[in-house]
Amino acid sequence: MNEQHDTVETGATELEVKDLRVSIGGTEILHGISFYLEAGERLGIIGGSGSGKTMTALAIAGLLPREATVSGSVRANGRELLGLSDRELAAIRGDRIGMVFQEPKTALSPFRRLGTQMTEALAIHYHLGRAQRREAALRLARQVGLRDPERIVRAYPHEVSGGQRQRAAIAAAISASPGLLLADEPTTALDVTVQRGILELFTEITDRDECSLVCITHDIAVVNQVAERVLVFADGQIVEQGSVREILERPTHEVTQALIAAAGGEAA
């Protein structure tokens, strides 16, 4: 049963998705997705491979494949995103919406120093000079807990660890103080200890900057650590949703039950 919210709760709304449908090659991939995200809220989206969770994030960010057909509504901070031109979307990405992807090795260019990549959105949107970018890179490196920031901002991605690369990618995503942060499987490539630190960083950032977070994952333990509310996806639909505690303690859909069982049934 698809129990989606069709109305927005009271309070400031950072993101509102209504009846989102995406088709590729004549096949509908997303079947009427609807949900909202309040300002400062942390939302988890969980599901298995092919459930539609990443496609939803790509639709929000305006990064769907060229051949995709999309309908419905995606509003960020009250502005409709569907139908905007590539130039208009580029002005929003990095500024209003920050993105963190699964593998920083592919998200970060191997040929450019980390400091340069951390401040790319700032350079685009605010036209910072070289000295200003360096100071901004050092500040961002400290904000995301990178030790020895002087070395890190001069380093190339292959010269630092996986956890440091992901922190640098997060620094790039939050550099222009976006109101919405999309994180697609941000800890999958990391070991458990590093993963915990990255998730704690997301919580710290959203609390400090009053930034909303959508964390997309296949791991219910990740959702439990970072999110307040969760949507469960299966076959391009939301099949269950509620507070993380409600979902963990009283899951009703078989997909949710299977995800919890896969994680060992742990609520911590």
UniProtKB/TrEMBL annotation:
Q: Where is the ABC transporter domain?
A: 15-260
**Which SMART domains does this one have?**
AAA
What Pfam families is this protein classified in?
A: ABC_tran
Q: Name one GO cellular component term.
A: plasma membrane
Where in the cell? Answer: Cell membrane
**First-listed, main subcellular location of the protein, grouped into a coarse class:** membrane
Recorded hits in InterPro entries, A to Z, give:
AAA+_ATPase (IPR003593), ABC_Ni/Peptide_Import (IPR050388), ABC_transporter-like_ATP-bd (IPR003439), ABC_transporter-like_CS (IPR017871), P-loop_NTPase (IPR027417)
UniProtKB keywords: ATP-binding, Cell membrane, Membrane, Nucleotide-binding, Transport
Family membership: Belongs to the ABC transporter superfamily.
Q: Enumerate the PANTHER family for this protein.
A: DIPEPTIDE TRANSPORT ATP-BINDING PROTEIN DPPD, OLIGOPEPTIDE TRANSPORT ATP-BINDING PROTEIN APPD
List the protein's name. Peptide/nickel transport system ATP-binding protein
Tell me the lineage of the source organism: Bacteria, Bacillati, Actinomycetota, Actinomycetes, Micrococcales
